[in-house]
Amino acid sequence: MADNLIQRIVARTKALQILPVELNQEIAHCLEDDRDVVNFRASCRAAKDAIDDGHSFWFKRFNNKYDPPTALDPASPNYKVRLQKLYQKRSKYLSGRMVHFKVGTTRKEEETLKVVAALINDSFRGSTWTHRTFSTGQSQLACRNLEVLKLFIRRSGITENMFRPRPTKSKTKESETAEPQYGFLLAAVQLMCAPSVLAPKYGSVYGFIDSQRLAYATIKAAPIFCGFNKLEVNMEWILHVLNFFKYHICKEEENTLYAPFRNLTKADTPGFWQKPLHNGPAELGVHWKGTYAYLSTSEISLVRAGNAQGRAFIDHNVDHGDEAIQVSSTHFTPVI
User: Fold this and answer.
1) Which helix (H) or strand (E) holds 260?
2) Backbone angles phi, psi at 205, to 5 degrees
3) Is 191 within 8 Å of 235 (Cβ atoms)?
4) 270: closest CA among 237, 244, 241, 246?
5) Residue numbers of the chain with a pLDDT score lower than 50
6) What pLDDT does 233 receive?
7) CA–CA dist 32, 301 (Å, integer)
């Protein structure tokens, strides 16, 4: 539709040439797809001049779509030029057409993930609005970057193929190739997308046997903290635990969390963060909903031994129905 609109406009002799730069810019701002903006700019000299006029078009387009970037100082030289380059870089990598996510170790995956991570870190730095108000009176906030992230999740499929089996043979089939280690940044970004991961309508569940093994693993086999001086969080392990519960939420035939999760009110389902992210400690909430699963002692031993049978064990839960998801209130005493 946008292409047809452009063609009708430029079909008239000097249609854009007689319009002021500001009006041509407003016409371009009505084009939601950046590819249409590129086509509009190429339509005639007047359109090109309007798009390129002092970088003001890209400055406004960036601020209409994204929260202010923390990495750029508005008072710095060439701020609008740098903002234009950042906009065009995000337009390229956040289109969802650049890469197919596997384990996050290819160059395209890593470059895309860096852009997504910056988008997350810059979220809620600008204006916010109420996305919805629940029956409890609680509001769910939104911001520009968060809306872009949600669109990227739908377009890219970043949460749909977690732990999907990969070929283990080389093309010549003469030797086996080791599975690449799961990328730390991919796991971190996917964890930030947890509300979409746990949404039953998003994607299938892969790798449950591995996720079950790691969920029941000892602290030595699957430490929560790793890296130098144990200062890094084991993101892949957390992602496997998330995948473990996603399986029970999405698989109706398991008769575990499928119905209880759907019976939750919208206010009680997992949601995205509601304020700027920051380093350091954060205050934990008081009211929580949670669940758990367990296996018998003999089954846990088999799982931890490597599950040679290659089958999933039936997880148990003491409570059934809606009581499978429990409510707790946790009060933390400040350390003086």
Assistant:
1) helix 258-262
2) -110, 120
3) yes
4) 246
5) 13, 174-176
6) 92
7) 56
Residues 195-216 as b/e (b if ≥16 CB within 10 A, e otherwise) read: bbbbbeebbebbbbbebbbbbb
pTM of the model: 0.86
The pLDDT value recorded for residue 98 is 80
Q: What is the reported pLDDT for 220?
A: 93
The whole-number pLDDT of residue 13 equals: 43
Cross-strand partners of 142 = 129
Beta partners for residue 284, in sequence order: none
**CB-CB contact of 27 with 9 (8 Å):** yes
Terminal Cα-to-Cα distance of the chain (whole angstroms)? 63
Residue 150, judged by CB atoms within 10 A of its CB (0-12, 13-18, 19+), counts as middle
Residue 130's DSSP bridge partners are 141
Residue keyed to tokens 């031993």? 301
Count other C-beta atoms under 10 Å from residue 177's C-beta. Answer: 11
Q: What is the DSSP string of 200-231?
A: TTS-----HHHHHHHHT--TTTS-SEESGGG-
Two structure tokens written together for 64: 């209409």
For tokens 């249409």, the residue is: 36
Whole-number pLDDT of residue 11:
54
CA distance 204 to 225: 28
pLDDT recorded at residue 14? 66
